[in-house]
Amino acid sequence: xxxxxxxxxxxxxxxxxxxxxxxxxxxxxxxxxxxxxxxxxxxxxxxxxxxxxxxxxxxxxxxxxxxxxxxxxxxxxxxxxxxxxxxxxxxxxxxxxxxxxxxxxxxxxxxxxxxxxxxxxxxxxxxxxxxxxxxxxxxxxxxxxxxxxxxxxxxxxxxxxxxxxxxxxxxxxxxxxxxxxxxxxxxxxxxxxxxxxxxxxxxxxxxxxxxxxxxxxxxxxxxxxxxxxxxxxxxxxxxxxxxxxxxxxxxxxxxxxxxxxxxxxxxxxxxxxxxxxxxxxxxxxxxxxxxxxxxxxxxxxxxxxxxxxxxxxxxxxxxxxxxxxxxxxxxxxxxxxxxxxxxxxxxxxxxx
Length: 352
Known about the structure:
Elements: H1 12-31, E1 39-43, E2 50-55, H2 59-72, E3 77-82, H3 85-93, E4 100-103, H4 106-114, H5 124-127, E5 134-135, E6 139-152, H6 165-174, H7 176-179, E7 183-186, H8 192-204, H9 207-216, E8 221-223, H10 226-235, E9 240-245, H11 246-253, E10 259-262, E11 270-276, H12 284-298, H13 336-350
Parallel strand pairs: 2-3, 2-4, 7-8, 7-9
Antiparallel strand pairs: 1-3, 4-11, 5-6, 6-9, 6-10, 6-11
Helix pairs in contact: 6-9, 9-13
């Protein structure tokens, strides 16, 4: 796809007025939707076209990419809405009119695509993706992000650094006084990404349930998202946070003294952040342009460093450190009975 060919530029005053008008109109339409919004920012363009994006990625992480996109396409305004993966899924399934949906919960995204709620899209950029990073021209991966363990180094003083989940189980079991109320992880009832990581890890290793049971004895703190866990590790409220997103943690290492990432050498969950164009999209051509921009950055073709690249965690990384597969197997734990059974077992382990 080429340039949209939108003609003309607005004056500074016209652009400002357009932005205010778009903000008012879009605020009303979003408020009418039955889902929770965490954050929102409008980036006016020089034409009436506004690309509506719903995403699980925090604004401070994604804004540089949005600004780079507008450098190339100043005519396209962007309405960027941040929601949890579960709320995003509910919004798109409920028919919300977004042009692009970006989520960390691969299973929920795959469910939308599999159920016919994603448009087919193809371009030279999507054709260049490796097979494992796309499905049926409806869902596309643009990052590969490992789950990691983040620690507060001061609270680990004098303790050995675990290098596997078996080591972590032993550490938590042998030092309950150090970790009581100081371990954080996802609330699987609320976090789509947390549920994805947990179900995939449970399939990969029995160590997941042993670790969950040990954490359950320590009065763990449960969270919706990685950023909140990292905040509490940095403040010292938590000694350890389990399965936070690696790029979020790496981005904080230079900002917060005393944060460290524990490399788990047994295996790593690697999530593919994915994009789809909902069937309700109104600015389909603009959505395709942004999707191509995301994929170029994901394949390392961007002029500036940005998103965690796909190729860093491709198939060549080995089974223990490869990406979670983008395919029908993701649907297994979305089945109602399977989900209820998994959450029942998780609740029993966490609420001892």
